[in-house]
Amino acid sequence: MRFDVISVMPQMFDALQQQGVVGRALQRGQAELRLWNPRDYTSDLHRTVDDRPYGGGPGMVMKYEPLQAAIEAARSGRPDVKLAYLSPQGQRFDQQVATEMAASGEDLILIAGRYEGIDERIIERNVDQEWSIGDYVLSGGELAAMVLMDAVIRLLPGVLGAAESAEQDSFMDGLLDCPHYTRPEQIDGMQVPKILQSGNHELIRRWRLKQALERTLQRRPDLLQGRRMTAEEEKLFNEIRAASGDAEREQEQ
Ligand code: ADE
């Protein structure tokens, strides 16, 4: 899967290319990243990529011509490649979208904007998808593009080893993750839950699922709305409910 990113700050992507699981995947050729700087497609002395907004107001807007030229260079020879723009106005990017992108394996051109935004005609002419990584405003789309690529690339075949498998990730089954522990068994008066040392894989699996359900109920009940539960989850969920009811009644007494 190849990503082409249009950005006036290509150095920001050094970390993604050099570090961690994604850096390793890019170095192994399991995914590809190419960067295109609109500044390289300017023709004036100052290599201008932004200009004042029509209608007035604060901030600058990214100009059409250098962006369009960079997009065309990135798209060269691939007329059907999809193009996504990162912005707070986009649809919410989540684990399900990441999973679908990784499963399709289709190349993607990403536009990372700066300043107040990009000339709307770029969007009109080129953009197939617009993604937001959350309801907050970043100073540019680069971090959002890296978030998207990280979430997708780690799901590509062979990127995570068996020991790092994505199946157990938070959200992969629509729930938050369970707690994790490693050695030592006891530290600063805190103990690893006994069940994790029992060696009983079935009990451990059930405990983890119950913890995941409990955390999701406490921290992100919105994730449970409209989610289909398995019979086992239903049973564990009722146990959690009953226990929290007991706790409330105890508090009242
Ligand atoms: N650019 C600036 N803020 C953003 C956000 N929240 N998501 C995606 N792109 C952005």
Automatic annotation (TrEMBL):
Predominant location of this chain? Answer: cytoplasm
- The protein's superkingdom reads Bacteria
The record's keywords, sorted A to Z, are:
Cytoplasm, Methyltransferase, S-adenosyl-L-methionine, Transferase, tRNA processing
A molecular function (GO) term: tRNA (guanine(37)-N1)-methyltransferase activity
- Spell out the subcellular localization from the entry: Cytoplasm
Q: What biological-process terms (Gene Ontology) are attached? A: tRNA N1-guanine methylation
- Bilayer-crossing residues are none
What reaction does this enzyme carry out catalytically? guanosine(37) in tRNA + S-adenosyl-L-methionine = N(1)-methylguanosine(37) in tRNA + S-adenosyl-L-homocysteine + H(+)
Q: What is its EC number?
A: 2.1.1.228
**tRNA methyltransferase TRMD/TRM10-type domain ranges (all copies):** 1-225
Top enzyme class, one word, equals: transferase
Instruction: Kindly list any coiled-coil regions of this protein.
Output: none
Residues binding S-adenosyl-L-methionine, per UniProt: G113, I133, G134, D135, Y136, V137, L138
Q: Which Gene3D superfamilies match?
A: 3.40.1280.10, tRNA(m1g37)methyltransferase, domain 2
GO cellular component terms given for this protein: cytosol
Q: Which family does it belong to?
A: Belongs to the RNA methyltransferase TrmD family.
Q: Cite the NCBIfam families for this sequence.
A: PRK00026.1, trmD
Described by its record, this protein's role is as follows: Specifically methylates guanosine-37 in various tRNAs.
* Quaternary context: Homodimer.
From the Swiss-Prot or TrEMBL record, give the protein name: tRNA (guanine-N(1)-)-methyltransferase
Q: What is the lineage of its organism?
A: Bacteria, Pseudomonadati, Pseudomonadota, Gammaproteobacteria, sulfur-oxidizing symbionts
